[in-house]
C-alpha cells in the first residue's frame, strides 16, 4: 500500500517570549558515548565537547534505537522508529512522504543548511563510489526532506582525503584537504552569512568521522601522533570466537588473523579522529561566539550509533550492546537550558526531533512517534519514556534474513530477544556495565525479565512492529529496487 502523503496536523509547543533560536545540529558517525572525555574516558581528548557538556544538558542514557547509519537518519528526520520508516537497513532510498524535521523548519521561516553525509539516497548496494548515487536532480529535491536551503552533501564516503560533495548540479565538488576541516569551514561561512539576517537559520552538519576505515592515512598525522604511544588493548569482553548472531565478519580465521591483532590500532586512529572532530567542534563554537549569536542559538551534538571494537565478539554496530547503542547527546542554549545538567532519561532517536522542535517552540507533527523531552532540557520535570525500544531489523545493508532482534533499554536493564531462535538476554547495566552476565534465567531477576518482556511487546504492538524478517520489508515496503514506497506504518 503506497502512502498518500505527509500529515499536516501538528501540536504546538511553547517557547519563552522573544526567543526565536537558530539551530546548529551536529552529528558524528559511529561515535560511541563511552569514548568522550565528559563520559569518563581518560584516553579521549575532547576538551571542546567536555566544555559543551558542562554548558548545557547531557543526556547520559541516549540511544540509537536502530544502530546503523541510514536507519538512524530516517528516524532523526521523521521522529519515527525504523519499523515505521521502512529504512531498516542501509543503502535504501528514503520515502519522502513524511512530515520531516526540514519541512517544519522551512515552513516556519528558517533558512536551512545541510553539510555532509546524507545516506538516505541510494537504491542499490555497492553504490559508494558512484557519483550519480549522491546527486539529486532538481525534480528529486523532495528527497532532501525539506532542507531547501544551502546543500553541500553526498550519500556515502569515508575516504576523508578523497572527499567530495554535491550542491545543485551533477558535478562532484572535490574537497581539498581533510573533509571534517573543510566541512567546518563551510559551516562557519554559513553561520557568519546568516547571523545578521532577519530570518533564523537551522544548520545540520553531518561529519563522517570517526567512521572507519581506521587507517593512519585517513586522519591528519598531527592527531595520529597524539595517540601514537597511547596503549590500546582488546576489550574486556573480547572472545576468540566471533558472535554467530553478527551479520558479517564471522569467519573464525579472519576474526583471529585480522581483527584481533588490528583492533588496538583501529582504536588509535578512532581516537585520533575524535580529537580532530573535537577541534572542529571547538572552531564551530568559537565562530558562534564571534558572530554574537550564542545566546539565541540552540546547539545540539550527537552521533548516529557507536562501535563494538571486538566487545562481545563483535565489530561495527547493529546490536543492542551498550557500545553500539549508547550515543552522546548534548544540548546548549544559554539562558534556556541550565548549565551543567545531567539527565538519565531514556532518550531515543525518535525523541530527538520532537525534543528539539519543542524547545524551539515549533510545531511537532502529530505523526511523530517520539516524545518531547524539552522540559527536561530546561531543568524542569516532565513526562519521559519508561524505556527505549531497540530494533535490529536484519543485516547491515543486505536483504538477508536471520539477524533480526528486538530489545528494550530502561534506566537499569537491557532486554533483548533474537527472532531466529527466540533466545533472550537480560543485563543489569548498573551492576554490570560491561554486560558480562546474562540474567534471563536468574530467578532473582524474574520480575525484571517478565516486566521488560511485557513492556517490549506492548511498545511493539503500539507501533505495529510485528517482528518480521528483514526480507519482509523488501517485499512489502519497497519496489524491489530498494526504493521505499510506504511512508507510514499500516
Tags for this entry?
eight-stranded mixed beta sheet; Alkaline Phosphatase, subunit A; alpha/beta; Arylsulfatase, C-terminal domain; four-stranded antiparallel beta sheet; 490 residues
Protein topology:
Elements: E1 10-11, E2 22-28, H1 47-54, E3 57-59, H2 69-78, H3 82-85, H4 101-107, E4 111-117, E5 150-154, E6 164-165, E7 173-174, H5 179-195, E8 201-206, H6 221-226, H7 252-290, E9 297-303, H8 322-325, E10 329-332, E11 341-343, H9 349-360, E12 364-365, H10 374-377, E13 388-392, E14 405-409, E15 413-418, E16 424-428, H11 446-463, H12 470-477
Parallel strand pairs: 2-8, 2-9, 3-11, 4-5, 4-8
Antiparallel strand pairs: 1-12, 3-10, 6-7, 9-10, 13-14, 14-15, 15-16
Outline of the structure:
This protein is of the alpha/beta class and 490 residues long. It has twelve helices and 16 strands.
Task: Walk me through what this model shows.
The chain has two domains: 21-385, Alkaline Phosphatase, subunit A (3-Layer(aba) Sandwich); 405-467, Arylsulfatase, C-terminal domain (2-Layer Sandwich), CATH 3.30.1120.10. The protein has 490 residues and is an alpha/beta fold. The strands form four sheets. The chain has an eight-stranded mixed beta sheet, with helices on both faces. α2 runs parallel beside α9 and α5 runs parallel beside α7 (252-290). It has helices at 47-54, 69-78, 82-85, 101-107, 179-195, 221-226, 252-290, 322-325, 349-360, 374-377, 446-463, 470-477, and strands at residues 10-11, 22-28, 57-59, 111-117, 150-154, 164-165, 173-174, 201-206, 297-303, 329-332, 341-343, 364-365, 388-392, 405-409, 413-418, 424-428.
